[in-house]
Amino acid sequence: MTKKRYLEKFVIKDLKDKMVFIAGPRQVGKTTLAVCVGDKFYPDRYSYLNWDNREDRRIIIDSTFRADKGLIIFDEIHKYKNWKNYLKGEYDKYKDKFKMLITGSARLNIYRKGGDSLLGRYYYYRLHPFSLNETLGKTEEIEVLKELVFSDSKKEARESFGILLKFGGFPEPFIKQSEKILRRWHNQRMDRIIKEDIRDIENIRDLSALQLLVEILPGKVGSLLSLNSLREDLGVTHKTISLWVDILERFYYHFRVYPFRNKRIKSLKKEPKIYLWDWSELPGEGERFENIVASHLLKFCHFLVDSQGYKANLYYLRDIEKREVDFLVTIDEKPWFCVEVKTSFKEIPSHLRYFKEKLKIPFVYEVVKEEGIDFLKDNIRVISASKFLTALV
Question: Among 200, 224, 258, 354, which residue has the least CB neighbours within 10 Å?
């Protein structure tokens, strides 16, 4: 079973103008998306070239592309030492003849941060795991800085949310829905990230210590991330632990959410909170629930940046008085809506009211795991996660 991915129509449209890059975590479905684009819109007229294949590699190096093709898909080409200059040259030479779609792991993103010789020649997308709306096959028009619009597909949304929460959003475990497959998939994924992806790119001598860090980080989800505490746990220098955390983030193991800074509140200056790209690794109900909401919000922000060009960002709120709200989404650093996550509803937290008034946040949500919840109190909407997440991507 193959599900249509949320970026498909945007990739198709952008291929008409420039090269398109698709980056994201290992096994998130980048190659599958690229091939689907070829099958649907260039049937029998696209070439799929994988750098790991000897014959394909020869075609790439020799630039002997089939003349009867309209689309070339380059997979894993970032393993070619001079791939950026290569693509620049081939695009400039053949842009009127071929469309070019490039897929790659986190390494594609790493190299992209260097000197950008491809500037102005490509669009760039970050492919995320499945989210609730994507599994439901729904795509809604998003009006930024307006109130979110929620779907009424109650039973279907509840069932899909339960599967996502348990098995995560990566295609293989989500589609197969087997606990045994999920456990094996977790083990294989981390082995490949550390022993293949990271080892190939980064000069890390002690991979076993890095693997230990991977075992520690899930216990930090939803909390302020203290590098000093991690340094003490692993017995390494601050510089080393900082580098390792950066590397794991670049390879899409985790992501960090930073505090929102504004002169109206005495906010924290730097400590981020940490979340995993694969929330199914988390055993705790509360941490896993908060993480799935964080992942949906990050996907929403990345989508607005990559496909619509908005400067969307995900933050959390916390001041020196330790008042805190889990998430804040901004456009051009202007607050749009904030979200507090709770497994069940008891009362409206006072800090939600405080930040709403202090920062003039237009829309405020308390998102709960309980089903069948949706009411407004003091202009704060309390809503079940399975309904709230239908307003995102």
Answer: 200
The span from the CA of 214 to the CA of 253, in Å, is 8
Quote the CA–CA distance of 266 and 162 in Å, as a whole number. Answer: 38
Q: List beta partners, residue 258.
A: 315
Any bridge partners for residue 248, and if so which?
none
Residue 167's alpha-carbon distances to 34, 126, 179, 292, 298, in angstroms, are 24, 21, 8, 11, 19
Provide the pairing of β-strand 324-331 with 334-342: antiparallel
Which helix (H) or strand (E) element contains residue 134?
A: helix 132-136
Question: Can you tell me whether residue 314 is helix, strand or coil?
Answer: strand
Question: Minimal CA–CA distance to 221: which of 289, 153, 160?
Answer: 289
Q: In sequence order, what are the residues at sequence separation of 6 or more whose Cβ sits closer than 8 angstroms to the Cβ of residue 353? A: 378, 380
Phi-psi region of 235 (alpha: psi -120 to 50; beta: other; left: phi over 0): left
**Domains of the chain, each with CATH number or no CATH:** 8-126 (3.40.50.300), 132-391 (no CATH)
Tens digit of pLDDT for each residue in 324-342?
999 999 999 999 999 999 9
- One DSSP character per residue, 296-313 reads HHHHHHHHHHHHH---EE
Q: Is the dihedral of CA 22, 225, 285, 343 positive or negative?
A: negative
For the ranges 46-60, 134-148, 168-182, 300-314, which has the lowest average pLDDT? Answer: 134-148
HEC letters along 175-210: HHCCHHHHHHHHHHHHHHHHHHHHHHHCCCCCHHHH
C-alpha distance across the termini of the chain, in Å? 21
- CA–CA distance, 322 with 305 (Å, rounded to integer): 31
What is the pTM (predicted TM-score) of this model? 0.95
Task: Please answer whether residues 336 and 366 qualify as being in contact, where contact means their C-beta atoms are separated by less than 8 angstroms.
Answer: no
Contact 207, 193 (CB under 8 A): no
Residue 270 has pLDDT above 90, yes or no: no
What mean pLDDT value characterizes the chain?
Answer: 93
Look at the chain and count its residues.
393
